[in-house]
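Predict structure. Chain length: 350.
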Amino acid sequence: MQQGYSGRAEGTHTISTHIAIIVFLTATFVVALAGIRIISTADRLADRTGLGEAVFGGVLLGASTSLSGIVTSLTAASQGMASLAVSNAVGGIAAQTSFLVIADMIYKRVNLEHAAADANNMLMAAMLVLLMSLPLAANYAPEVALFGIHPVSILLFAVYFFGTRAAVQLRDRPMWRPRQTNETRDDEPDEAEAQIHSLPVMIAIFVGLSLVLAACGFAIAESGAVISANLGISQTVVGGLLTAVATSLPELVTTLAAVRRGALQLAVGGIIGGNTFDVLFLSLSDIAYREGSIYHAMTQADALMLIGATVITTILLMGLILRERRGIGVEGLGILAAYVGLMAIQVSTG
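Prediction complete.
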């Protein structure tokens, strides 16, 4: 694994740091506003299409709120900044999972993982652990490529599509269900609200907001690269802390908004689904990165980010299974401790 960081970020940009910071903050603000608007549309579409909150949140909402992040990683990879591309994707997974703890604090009635019990969310979380294990394996395996693409990049897409197909089948034909308690919140469609707009109008709004998120992702990537180069901050720290958190704001906003609306499965599913989609950033970044396999351009700090995100996701999966009733639960404290510890190590070594 490489120790330094490579690519365009080593040079000095003609754009001033002040302008880059203004662009970064402006794009981040727009991302937050778009995230607020998209959640109500997603909730209505989940009811209108019959997919349900967990499936819609885990697949479509997760993908749309991830667009700003995927553009950030693609832009960085195409410019040779492998570490920024990887750390942005993986740092987003760690940050977004931690957002569930914030949502848990807001939903004071009962532990969020207990109330939002859903087999789909557990399936997607297990798939996420598998997806994050593959890039780590590629990092230690021999460097091979097929038309300039590492085989793991293709495998990631195959696993993702298999998992999402299994999630839809599980929704239609569940083999088991979580035990219902007084605090369990069922996904019950709100027919009246789902009819506020026609289906084509809701789809158009959803797609439009998704495109806004993607455009903001490009601005965040460009400004983040300037900040990394001009201030001499490592790409891993910039990706894991700045761009990852900024492009993860839609997940934070949509999660908090979903909890306030009572769409708990949508809140949890949106985070987990967004995280599974975020792993695909690595596949697309590998295609965009033309200096070899992006998995072998990863630094030790990037690999640590992958390990940390896997640990955090595993803790969440345990929380979804154990379903503590009160407070943020042991899983919430564990997620926060793991995230803070991971970021502290990155900053101290970056």
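Summary: Confidence is low (pLDDT under 50) at residues 1-12, 189-195.
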